[in-house]
Amino acid sequence: MNTGREMTEPLEKYDIVICGAGLAGLTLALQLRRQLPEKSILILEKEVGPIPAGIHKVGESMTEGGTFLLRQLAGLKDYIESTHIKKLGLRFFGGGYRKEGFEKRFEIGDVIFARNTSYQLDRGVLENDLRQFCRAAGVHIAEGVSVTDIELGDKSHAVTYVNSADRKSAKVTCRWVVDAMGRRRFLQSKLGLGKKSEHEASSSWWRVQGDFDVAGMVPRDAADWHERVFARRWYSTNHLLGPGYFIWIIPLCSNMTSIGIVTDEATHPIQNRNTYEKSLAWLAENEPDLYEFVKDEKALDFLVLKRFAYKTTKAFSTEGWCSIGEAAAFTDPLYSMGTDLIAIGNRITTHLIELDDANCLTVEVVESYNKLYVKVVDVMTGLFHDMYPSFGADDVMILKIMWDIACYWGFFSQLSIQDFLSKDDFQAPLLELATRLEAANIRAQCALRAAANSDRGSALKTGFYNFGGVSRVTDLRAKVTEGKSIEDIAANIAFLEQFAQALSSFVSSGEHDAATSDELRPLLEKLSAYLTPVENVGIRL
After folding, report:
1. Is 160 within 8 Å of 170 (Cβ atoms)?
2. pTM over 0.85
3. CATH 3.30.2130.10 given to domain 1-84+121-195+310-386
């Protein structure tokens, strides 16, 4: 076991080499130190610390599952709660009135902080601190080095890297090598395992200095709007919806605000906003209130990701390598589920290393984890594929948001939070449940898409829909961190199948073609067992 003292040069051999010191690699190192403290670990990272606050990285908004990764799996509960911003959940503003006054847009969100809360992360602050936590735990970190090759062997691998300061090359050997180098996707490319995603969306985003609260876009004399949410909306991950796009507004603990535009590539091609100036012009046309709010601010940075989604055919191997985080797959930032994929990948990687240490690692076991991981990515992607054009349909989006987050709280989050991924005999039933959810989701999204594409007349919505007023769906969140069995997850999937059936039946009946402002009332009545508003202030449904 190493001592955690600062080192000048890496050793020649380690048990585990993690390539990349981002969120995935650093949290994996902490998990491994907690569960396999005798293992020697080296992290190779090209960026020399300390990295700046507000660094331009995906993953500033955490889910309940992502929060569990940091608080429990990485052992950082006190740190997260004391340093980063407690999150007032996800908040959505409809696109129907986006050019007629912000206060007219329908709003979905929390009134108060939920019991199972999550956080907004300044990734620069977080990753600087994670490096220090790793060093204190005995993890060696070599900064300012770039991995140039990974030679995979039977029981030993060789990782070649170059020092950016003197351009000298060095090599280290290990039993396990983990690719956590993000979108470079080194092992996926080397082994030909990457898979194109059918979801084609792109993003541009930047940071501005200061505290930007969406409430600033609503006149102070609109008392009802301001008073219907008790906590500041600033604490939420705020989303502005529109036809073919959404926008995020996220506060950071470094007194910065992250603003991102995410669009369907076919509807709003990235070439129309691949500079900060173009993005502002795009806001002026599509989101005039937000444009007026930020137009005079200086962008601290700017980044574009074209067609950001991708998949994998294999992320784990009996040969002693794994791809985790964005080095394996990425779906979409709308519900911030990227940290759940990190948690899932980290859990699987840690377990496989434990099995290998006990001489119990088999091809069959690894293949079961690969099948589950690939299926989870597929089902997650299905929430977004070909659905962005529906984002401008207020009535449909109210239902889609409820469906999507029910999928998250009922299944995806449970892979991050529960200890299912350390039990080999759970993988087959989990895969079966994921396959059932995939079928239900296809049915639900088809129904929602058909409703959005129909000639329904005016379907603009206004008012407020409280997450806390949705009894059955929000009940999933209230119990999201409670211990559960496979049978409990099966019950969640059965509920989601009923939900999807109700959506599908409504659409096939033709009721969605009714061109009235109350067109969704029949659907909500059919879903009353699942979506029962407790507090529903002014929304016209």
Report:
1. yes
2. yes
3. no
